[in-house]
Amino acid sequence: MLDGVCRAYLNQCVHRAQPVDVGDGQVLTKDGFLECGAHGALYNPVDGSCAGGPCTGGGLTAIKLERDGDALFALALEIEPPEDLYELSLE
Ligand code: FES
Fold it and tell me: What is the CA(70)–ligand 1 centre distance, in A?
């Protein structure tokens, strides 16, 4: 939650598609950015955009949230993995 607004992002860094919370699971920096534990990509927590490091040109994928009374739901996503991530030779 930031400024009274809940936001959610897919836990996948745009740099190498690793979980942003890899390592000790801490992603929030002292300056208030979201930091990928793998190589230090920094994301703006307001919109998931790249704020520094190796995420140039990319950003976190926002997950739509829906509130129903006191419950908060993250709506399902259909996500296509990056093409180069699963290119395997079967020869
Ligand atoms: S995988 Fe996140 S910075 Fe490299």
Answer: 34
Length of the chain: 91
Give the atom of ligand 1 at the shortest distance from the alpha carbon of 40.
3
Q: In the chain, what are the domains?
A: 1-75 (2.102.10.10)
Which pLDDT tens digit goes with each residue over 41-88? 999 999 999 999 999 889 999 998 988 988 888 887 766 666 655 555
What H or E segment, with its residue span, contains residue 42?
strand 42-43
Closest protein CA for atom 4 of ligand 1: 39
Half-sphere exposure of 2 (CA within 13 A, CB side): 11
Is the pLDDT score of 29 beyond 90?
yes
How confident is the model at residue 86, as a pLDDT?
A: 55
41 Cβ closer than 6 Å to some ligand 1 atom: yes
Q: Does the CB atom of residue 49 touch ligand 1 within 6 A? A: no
